[in-house]
Specification:
376 residues, alpha/beta, DNA Methylphosphotriester Repair Domain, Arc Repressor Mutant, subunit A, 3 domains, four-stranded mixed β-sheet, 41% helix, 10% strand
């Protein structure tokens, strides 16, 4: 049963009929938790239909996870659901085939799509609209051109923007810094890394990683401006060996080969914040902690709010795993990269513990959190 106060779902009888008939029209709109097994499934799952009294219906997989259900291994409700969405699949394939294409609502209409339907579908699957995703892909091409030493005009053309001002505006909106303000011989270099959960910006010098954030996070422009100031303006776009190591270790993580990161980190924060981040790195992949449990680990049971603030201020996503902290009631709570990413990360990491692939904590931290910025 589901909470009848939740007007986002129809009556249970309607949902159960959809489950019994494996109605694909409900794909991505609801999932079912089976209380007798503790598993949740898509309504199209090929498994035997459970009894009505054993069913709980949820709008999103995140809600099912928060309620204590595990994902079904047959229908994989946390898998690439977008690939089965008749609206999303062809547009994603079109974007993969031609990432430089310029999309607009007018083009969507010309291709036979309803822009509002496309907008809702992509927000549900990716946490952003299709037009945002297309612009992000194009912007990434421009960043890669700059990283390879290309000029702004070349980056603008590679990114498919009609004018230099349009490219500068898009870049400044993403980074909070106009491309012309970037240093050509930077102390800190920003690079673009693609992941299955979306593009990320990695900022590093020759020795350590200073920032790793999902593109589109609201705090990203502020964080980049802060690093730009700390480096006395010597922030630019480029690649170092640290970027290469970060990208390789992220690939191993998402391929399920390793949960252990060894990239040296430069942690910018107060001593207390750094203690919180170090404690986060001790949480094994596949496990979670509440804010209060983390506070007790630090010997500061009265500092739950301070722990939550430090957790939210973390600017090295995934590697410093702030996504492994949840509410005391099991709810997912906030996440700067989006709750949909947090939910997928938590479920993805469970395979490391279930399959015995969870390496012991082994995160390496730079002892020179700020020396690298003040050395010149």
């Amino acid at each position: 049963m589901h909470d009848q106060a939740d007007t986002r779902l129809p009556p249970d009888a309607v949902l159960y009929a959809a489950l019994d008939s494996r109605d694909s029209a409900w794909e991505g709109r609801a999932v079912v938790g089976v209380t007798s097994t503790g598993i949740f499934c898509r309504l199209t799952c090929p498994a035997r239909t459970p009894k009505p009294e054993n069913c709980r219906f949820f709008v999103t997989p995140a809600e099912a996870v928060a309620a204590g259900f595990r994902p079904c291994k047959r229908c994989r409700p946390l898998g690439p659901e977008a690939e089965s969405d008749p609206v999303v699949r062809p547009l994603v394939e079109a974007l993969r085939a031609d990432p430089d294409a310029r999309w607009s609502e007018a083009r969507l209409v010309a291709e036979g799509y309803d822009p509002s339907t496309v907008r809702r579908a992509f927000r549900r699957h990716f946490g952003m609209t299709f037009l945002d995703l297309a612009r992000q892909r194009r912007l990434g091409a421009g960043v890669k051109t700059l990283a390879a030493g290309g000029k702004v005009i070349e980056a603008q053309m590679d990114a498919g923007f009609a004018s230099p001002s349009a490219f500068r505006e898009a870049f400044a909106r993403m980074a909070g810094i106009a491309p012309g303000a970037l240093d050509r011989a930077p102390l800190l270099s920003a690079g673009w890394i693609e992941t299955p959960l979306g593009a990320m910006i990695a900022v590093a010098d020759a020795r350590a990683l200073h920032l790793l954030e999902f593109v589109g996070r609201k705090a990203l422009p502020t964080e980049l401006r802060r690093l730009h100031a700390a480096a006395k303006g010597r922030l630019g776009i480029g690649r170092t060996a640290v970027h290469d190591a970060t990208e390789a270790q992220l690939a191993a993580f998402f391929e399920g080969r390793a949960a252990r990161f060894t990239v040296p980190l430069a942690l910018h924060g107060t001593p207390f914040s750094r203690r919180v981040w170090e404690a986060l790195c001790e949480i094994p992949a596949g496990e979670t902690r509440s804010y209060s449990e983390l506070a007790r680990t630090l010997g500061r049971a009265d500092a739950v709010r301070a722990v939550a603030r430090a957790n939210g201020a973390n600017q090295i996503a995934l590697i410093v795993p702030c996504h492994r902290v949840i509410g005391a009631d099991g709810s997912l709570t906030g996440y700067g990269g989006g709750l949909w990413r947090k939910q997928r990360l938590i479920e993805f990491e469970r395979r490391f513990s279930e399959e015995g692939g969870n390496d012991p904590p082994g995160y390496f931290h730079s002892e020179e959190e700020t020396d690298v910025l003040s050395s010149e």
